Amino acid sequence: MANPLIKHYNSLHNILDKTRIADGLAPLLLRLYLAPVLMQAGYNKLSHFEDTAAWFGNPDWGLGLPFPEVMTALAAGTEFFGGIALIIGFAVRWISIPLMVTMIVAAVTVHLENGWLAISDSSSWLANDRIMEAADRLSAAKNILREHGNYSWLTGRGSVVILNNGIEFAATYFIMLFSLFFTGAGRFFSVDYWLARNFREEQE
Description:
There is one protein chain. This protein is an all-alpha fold. The chain has two domains: about 25-115 and about 165-200; about 120-165, no CATH class. The chain contains nine helices and no strands. α3 (about 50-55) packs across α4 and α5 (about 90-110) runs antiparallel to α8.
């Protein structure tokens, strides 16, 4: 006779297994979340191509990357057209690879020296010396705004903050893309699913 706990455990998992019919929703939501972020980043680079290339290539006030025009074109094209591919769910596992590389390059070359946090928050356990020092600047800025500006109007849509530009967002996007690389675009709501269903040969 089966152990009652094991029987109960299996029945609960049988209930959960019935939700697998909708397992395409998770990758769909990841795709739809990432797509506009990536497309906007790519569009900004394309719209300001010369300025972006100058920033990519300059070793003094920029990133000092080699072949800055090529790097700008690759980054912008990958983000913009990769975002479109994510929306329709086409070649998602393939496009996830260069997008992950883009996130790694951004994290290492732009954000890493700033620590983890994207927004300076001195109350966070992840706050570094840079963020703790920014707290004094933020306090001074708020005092100036209270004295010389309409502070209630300025903060009517949210508190004044200091951008820290840490790796938080790049790392988060990388993890989401990493997940999509393994799950694919998902069932039902992607071009990849219907192409595979109709044309891909089953492997023995």
